[in-house]
């Protein structure tokens, strides 16, 4: 009975630790990373959507890398872009970009390290890794 009880208590402790770990608040870095991925995906979907206004094709490219210092200028340019203000999806994307910019310059200012300042890399879409057969 004693080994079974120890195993059961160990299992309960392990499950409790896993539950606590999954409910931990996001770090500044994880929040910025997830929001930048969400924005990049939304931009890609917007570009291929057939139901959206033709002005969307003229939007500045929005491929984000939060490790690149140029991401700040990229976000500013995108939010300030004067066209497509009547397109709801663009306005929502601009709002997310504005939030990411605010988080980067205000809340996470001291937590982030920019590894590069190569602005040209933010003009090229990030391709998903290819699966080898």
Tell me about this structure.
The chain has 133 residues and is mainly α. The protein has one domain. Helix content is 54%, strand content 0%. It contains four helices and no strands. It has helices at 2-22, 28-48, 71-80, 88-107. Helix 2 (28-48) packs antiparallel against helix 4 (88-107) and helix 3 (71-80) runs antiparallel to helix 4. It starts with a helix and ends in a 26-residue tail after the last helix. The model has no long low-confidence stretch (mean pLDDT 80).
Give the amount of beta strand, in percent. under 5%
Shape: elongated
Beginning-to-end CA distance, first to last residue:
50 Å
Helical fraction: 40-55%
Low-pLDDT stretches: none
Q: Report the count of strand segments.
A: 0
Note the run of SSEs as H and E: HHHH
| Radius of gyration, in angstroms, nearest whole number | 21 Å
Overall SS class: mainly alpha
Our count of domains comes out at 1
Averaged pLDDT: 80
Count, helices: 4
Query: Main sheet, how many strands, which sense, barrel?
Result: none
Keywords:
133 residues; mainly alpha; elongated
Question: Briefly, what is this?
Answer:
Helix content is 54%, strand content 0%.
Helix and strand topology:
Blueprint: H1 2-22, H2 28-48, H3 71-80, H4 88-107
Helix pairs in contact: 2-4, 3-4
């Amino acid at each position: 009975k004693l080994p079974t009880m120890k195993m059961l208590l160990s299992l309960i402790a392990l499950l409790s630790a896993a539950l606590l770990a999954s409910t931990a608040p996001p770090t500044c870095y994880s929040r910025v990373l997830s929001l930048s991925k969400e924005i990049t995906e939304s931009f890609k979907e917007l570009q291929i959507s057939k139901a959206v206004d033709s002005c969307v094709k003229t939007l500045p490219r929005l491929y984000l890398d939060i490790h690149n210092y140029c991401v700040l200028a990229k976000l500013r340019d995108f939010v300030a872009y004067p066209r497509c203000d009547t397109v709801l999806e663009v306005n929502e994307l601009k709002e997310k970009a504005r939030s990411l910019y605010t988080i980067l310059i205000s809340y996470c200012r001291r937590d982030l390290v920019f590894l590069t300042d190569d602005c040209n890399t933010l003009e090229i879409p990030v391709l998903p890794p290819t699966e080898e057969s």
